[in-house]
Amino acid sequence: MTIDIYKYTIVFAIIISAFAAALARFYQYYDGMVFEDEFGMKTVQVSSFTSLADTLNTLFWALFCMAPLESADVVIENLHDPKNPEKEIENRHSFTERIGYLCFGGFEVISVIVVLNMLIATMSNTFQRVNDNVAIEWTFGRTEVYVDYMSQTTLPSPYNLIPTASGIGSIFEWFRVALKPPPGSYARWSLSYCCYIERDVEANLEKEYPALISALVQRYFRDKEMVSNNSGIETELEALRRQITALKMAIENNDKNESESSKSDKSNSSTKSISSSK
Questions:
Q1: What is the DSSP string of 177-217?
Q2: Nearest partner of 25 among 48, 2, 3, 52, judged by Cα
Q3: Cα separation of 76 and 89, whole Å?
Q4: pTM, entire model
Q5: What would you give as a GO molecular function for this chain, any one (predicted)?
Q6: Looking at the predicted structure, is the pLDDT value of residue 261 above 60?
Q7: pLDDT tens sequence across 212-255
């Protein structure tokens, strides 16, 4: 899921950069302009989209509904009538303002509705894929923990802070390799494993390692198939057991019916004999 977040973060960065560059280029002409109406009220062009930094700031906070709706307004200074210089003409750039609002709304739709829902869908798909392969993921995760545990000290945290004989021996061995490295051994250091010794792997081991991993994977899937086959056999045995039980009950019912019919026949014959004797 972290990879999905990284991918969509890059996509969002591209989208916000493109819209910021376009809107900043679109509104930079109106930077600092003041409009004065007939009553002497002055309106100053807001600096939401007049520069690249302000545009990025406005678009980012607009995702959280913290940018004013008037951010895309266009304010242009008054023009003087050529025939009468004292008379001012109100100038409006309505088309430019509509395009600005359209770009602003398009950014909101693309970033909030499209990209966010795509991220949710992708993360859900990734979670479902991992959940379907939970046994394999757990097996490989456990193996990775085992390998990390075996490559470090013999005690789990926080007991690994206590010095042990093997840990002290590993430290002395690391210093020995660092000061006088033998052929094929190198003293390394990293944030993950601290101090460790790296040894060259022989050519035959490099060939045997993939074969070993392949054999382990095949054994895992073979055991999994055997478990599934055993479960299938158990299901068949259960069905056979139910059939035998049903057959046994049918036989018992048949015997019971035959015994009842024989008793009724005997009673009828005895009744006939009594009537004949009379």
A1: HHHSPPTTEEEEEETTTEEEEEEPPPHHHHHHHHHHHHHHH
A2: 52
A3: 11
A4: 0.47
A5: inositol 1,4,5 trisphosphate binding
A6: yes
A7: 777 788 887 777 777 666 666 666 667 777 777 877 787 777 77
